[in-house]
Amino acid sequence: MFLVIQKRSIVIFLFLLVFFGAYAAILWSGSALTVFNQQAEAGESPVVVIDPGHGGADGGAVAADGTTEAQINLSVSLKLREVLRLAGIDVLMTREEDISVHSPEAATLREQKISDIHNRAALVSDTPNALLISIHQNSLPQVKSVHGAQVFYNTAEGSESLARALQEDLNTYVNTHRAKEVKKIDTSIYLMNHIDAPGILVECGFLSNEAETAQLRQEDYQLKLAVLIAGGYLRCQTAEPTAPESPTVQ
Ligand SMILES: [Zn+2]
Predict the structure, then answer these.
(1) In order of start, what are the domains of the chain with their CATH numbers?
(2) What is the pTM for the complete model shown?
(3) Number of C-alpha atoms within 13 angstroms, CB side, residue 161?
């Protein structure tokens, strides 16, 4: 256990060293600011709301070995909170345990699901200068070979550039076989479409892919995802806004 903790600490330390180095370099050179740190300059620090998708009776996608999306989402999210806090970022979680976030009056499973997603949206909407990072796992049982991480964004200002920053890092360090493109979130995804705040949703991998499921279950791999997501966020906070690059090869 000690070795595991030590290894995790070293990984976090190395990644943060790189990110803070880049952060310091950008500040030193006095670069232009993005929408996020314009808020920070006005004394309105962004608050990252981390949303581990599903939970409780709603396990989300389920792998062949019984691994549920909800449990992977929570593990990655708790590590993301840890890394962002280390970087001095204010963080809120929509859930910290394997629970549904529904109100007590919701009786049926359907009512609980609706109440859960409304409550998550309300948390984001009630948080000044919120930025949503929703963590999910994908599944495509019809094509079990499909794998890799993909970032989706909502229509709020700043979302797409944040998604692109994250996708770039995920393509470099996770999707080494084949890059994926960012995508605007489908209108059917309630939470991402019922907030005014910038929001991204990270589908970290495919639970329908056996090899990727095995990776997603590993603490080290979850930490790698968390560090990449946090790093993309920090880089986006500090970098000059740039025009979207042409899409990467799918
Ligand atoms: Zn999901």
Answers:
(1) 2-238 (3.40.630.40)
(2) 0.82
(3) 18
